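Study this protein:
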Amino acid sequence: MDATLNELYQDIILEHNRAPRNKHTLPAPAKVARGHNPSCGDSVTVFVAMEGDVVKCIAFDGEGCAISQASASLMTELLSGKTKREAGEIIDAVCRALGDADGCVAQTNPLEQYGEVAALIGVKKFPMRIKCATLAWHAAKDAMA
C-alpha cells in the first residue's frame, strides 16, 4: 500500500471514529447481539431490524478503540439494505480479508469492492487489533442468525 493510500485509509478510520454513523440503539423488535474483546476491553452491541429478508436498519452502540468504533460504523453503512445472504457474505469476506477466520467461511471477493471498508485492511499489520476490527462484524452475524 503506498503512502498516499495509507493516509487515506487512516483518515477514513479517524473520520468514522470521530463521527460514527448509525451509533444508536434500535427499538424492539430489533435483533440484538453483543460482542466483547476481553484483551482490550472493546464492547459493542449491534441492533438489526429486518424487513423480510432485507436488513432494513442496522445500528450499534458501545465503547472501544478507534478501530472497533470505525469498523462498526463502516459495517452499518455497508450492510444496510442488503439481503441476509448478501450481508453474511460480506461479513465473511471482511473477516477473511482481515485474517480472522474464527466463525467466518472462505470468501473469494476482494475487500476493495466494499468501498471505504477497504480502509480496515491496514489492521492486518497489527495482529492484536484484528479482533478490534472484526468485533462488530461477528456481533452482526450473530444478530442475523
User: Anything to note?
Assistant: Residues 3-144 form a domain with the Sufe protein. Chain: A fold (CATH 3.90.1010.10). The chain has a mean pLDDT of 88. Strands lie at 31-37, 42-51, 54-63. The chain has one domain: 3-144.
